[in-house]
Please model this.
Amino acid sequence: MEKDNAQQTLTPLEKPLRCIVKLGGAAITCKNELEKINEENLKAVSIHLREAMMSGEVVDMDWSKRPGRSDICVNVNGISDQSLLNSSNFIVVHGAGSFGHFQASKSGVHKGGLDHSLVKAGFVATRISVTSLNLEIVRALAREGIPSVGLSPFSGGWTTLQRNVASADIATVAKTIDRGFIPVLHGDAVLDHSQGCTILSGDVIIRHMAELLKPEYVVFLTDVFGVYDRPPSEPGATLLKEIAVDEEGSWHVVNPAPKTMNEKVEITVAAHDTTGGMVTKISEAAAIAKLGIDVYIVKAATDHSLKALKGEVKGNIPDDWLGTAIRFMRK
Amino acid sequence: MEKDNAQQTLTPLEKPLRCIVKLGGAAITCKNELEKINEENLKAVSIHLREAMMSGEVVDMDWSKRPGRSDICVNVNGISDQSLLNSSNFIVVHGAGSFGHFQASKSGVHKGGLDHSLVKAGFVATRISVTSLNLEIVRALAREGIPSVGLSPFSGGWTTLQRNVASADIATVAKTIDRGFIPVLHGDAVLDHSQGCTILSGDVIIRHMAELLKPEYVVFLTDVFGVYDRPPSEPGATLLKEIAVDEEGSWHVVNPAPKTMNEKVEITVAAHDTTGGMVTKISEAAAIAKLGIDVYIVKAATDHSLKALKGEVKGNIPDDWLGTAIRFMRK
Model:
């Protein structure tokens, strides 16, 4: 039943989906400080998203009481239908960064076992932490006038079977978009049909939605300029600007152009060996690119990421653009 | 399609549902202060809920960083499987109180019309406000060792048609319970198939879940001792201790015993005329009682509400118990 649910036939979106954007945990939180948001980056990213997805004046949509004030300051009379916001269809998914990580790793939620008190408590604690981040991101986007609504995967019936998505209420995501809102999902603790529970990552959520909702392109916002052939801190590290993915999902670097066949292989192997998390990212990105959907991995809050979010690098990658484009190319 | 979804055939719960409890907005927030939680009441209610639903030692499940601290204080080594928490099956639903009300009423979310900027912005603002309350309630429960998980109705695909529930992912609520968690839902802004959007109240959510999940009893925690024959502040106001509901859903007071038929009618009419919100509450409660499910309306954070939560008034109502019991009684 769950499998059917995951592969449900969906009513197509009223207007095609333009972009799924991942706000990487490293880009929007302070990596080395527990449960701390990188406010500066989050604000810059929210402004960029607004520029990429909508026009018209900014209407503050977070009408909560602000710290140190006793009432709510919002000029509702200033909101006219002229300020009506025609946003293009975006989905935002964010990672956890320094939220949830402590709770999940201390309790081993990803390994399952809900009959252990520690895992059960850790599951509750992880969800509290990641949903508190989700709320803050929804708020940040709403303040910039983005009609954002939080869609927590656990609440939306996302479950896994051996860590693959087994069920997910994609219909609610689609309805949310059709009504002109921007859904904001996140990596979450979820129920797993084989091991009881696990962590469902934002990247897996994106791949699943990309398959079903077919966005024009996908943007991963991170804290480095893109994918390098070795850790970016090492001397001589080269940014891989374009990676091609074929029908079988295998990938190779096309820019910088490999001088010889041998060198090409070396780059691939080097990336496998030394960049750790980046290889997982390339694999997820390659699985999306295989569907014919362009993927851009870019540094958050830069002109380069703004270009990617606007879809300006879709046809032709400008020479001065810094980022990694991963695209489908027939063998 | 949505209607089918609402009337879906459910796999029965592994263990019967004991209680659905409503944390009334008036009981857990400060009515006259915007977005302010009544911390004292919320803590007392959380402790009562813990006593009513589980045994064993208290395991703090909110591992978030606390204000003024730079790291997370939780002794995970102290959590053994001996502290494993066998909770009985409860569902918590809370109202909005002083959260969401400002946002919803300023924008008219309940009247629909998402093509108006003000309504759209108000929808976003309302959800931010009510989900921030939900997060704080989940935290308060988790701190008392209740394995609480937030299930936001909007995220769970709850939609309405002319304000009646049109779809709802009850399967996720059931799965959450079966895995030993306590789902925490709330009144929310949702999509409506006729008018675009509306406010789905906690009371309607409870009625819908009571029909499908058949709890043994339902408890409404509020800020007065129960239902009175006139506003409780008026001299001579009498607490209606027991109300009987028949097959057709019509109700009458059985305790205090009406002396004459005329007086009985008068009490009913008086309640209709003067107590406003309470009549809606009795109607919702009567709809639940009609299903054969006892409903108790009690004052939060009192011995009376603790007795109701524990199910101790189910068979026989003690003379010194203050509250209103609404029960099915054949005509």
Summary: The mean pLDDT of chain A is 88.
